[in-house]
Structure prediction request, 471 residues.
Amino acid sequence: IDDFFTLKNIVDSGANVAIVGGGFLGSELACALAYRSKENAKNGKPSGKIIQLMFEKGNISKVLPEYLSKWTSDRVREEGAEVVTNIELVDASLQEGKISLSYIDPKEPRKTSYVTTDHVIVAVGIEPNTDLAESAGLEIDPDQGGFLVNAELQARHNIWVAGDAASFYDIKLGRRRVEHYDHAIVSGKLAGENMTGAHNPYWHQSMFWSDLGPNIGFEAIGLTDSGLQTVAVYAKGKFNDEGQKGDSDGNREQKDAVPISNSNVLKEKTSETRPTTDNKNAYNKGVVFYLKDNRVVGVVLWNIFNRIPIARKIIKDQQVITDFQELAKLFNIHQD
Amino acid sequence: MSFCIKPENGKDKVMFLTSDDLSSPSTIKLKDDEQFDPWEQHGLVLPNGSINWNCPCLGGMASGPCGLVFRRAFTCFHNSDANSKGSECFTEFSSLTQCFAKYPNLYGSKNKSSTSQPTTTSATTAIADALSSQT
Prediction:
């Protein structure tokens, strides 16, 4: 909390801030700080430049499929932050009271670019502290890190692990390690139950969420690894070019003004009609399904809310899905 | 009209569907739920009539060092049929207040300059809130 207040004062003083890292923390900060800096400027207060740098091609790329990740980066830019993607940070130095960050585009390693800023926030992820494993003789997961525990969160007799540091066996989705708030709550409770004699495996899927400025928010559940195959359904309608308003009350229901034609026939277009990242409203609202062997293992609810229970049920059922239009119907994506 | 798109790498498929495309009932049948899921969100009272101690409406009071004391007091209150609800639960509530006083860091009032009263008030408020949110 102290860090938060320190940062708030820094931004309000008009200092320039650079954020290194394209994940949840970095992206949320980029949007929040850029927004605040813009508001400060509007009110005649000191306002600094906010820049976010990342190795990946777009924001939240570990979760969002590439096209959506890049589209999100454009939205973060609209919030007022400069977003520099696809770069490798190679040096940081202090020069005349300012920080100089140098980076390269790995495809042009001879060319070095620079960014000068007053403060740098490093948000490049965390590693679980498994020091205890050595002295206690506990197993560590070499792939995901963390203490290796079974489906009941047990490491060994009388030892359970919950939260970020637990690599556990999810009976539906396989071995995982999850660094989210709701998982900490769910796994903490489960470990507690099991410590007192229950023998329950982890099966209730925890969820997570992120809000990137006032216009983008999403909730997610299950395995949402962007490396998986994904199928997404976005709401299409005859609405004017209007970004989402501040709060959810501002969402307008999409009204289809065009007479109904054979709208049930899906036409598969060729690859020349790629989803364009400059189409501001293309991915305004929708649902992304993450698949393993044609079964849904994860769902991202993109700018639609209060539908996690449906997603949880679909993941729990693990049915083979062939028709995603039918699956999407369960989410009512055109409504708030 | 709706369409779908497959980007170059073919991995991430995208569909844009209108509300008409999605209007008819889905043909996907979800499986019947086998059992009562204790993890799902329930209100204050569970289907079997017992109190849901995990209800967010209880503000976490049913957990922690005073959790059991709270449960006794709240159960008494919940079952009370007196005109002034909970009036016969004085013993349980004063045990609760005593417990709160032992852990000021956890159960202290947010308003630091207040008198000792607010601790009781916040607990009672929580209970009152919990009951008014019960549907």
Notes: Chain A touches chain B through 49 residues (CB under 8 Å).
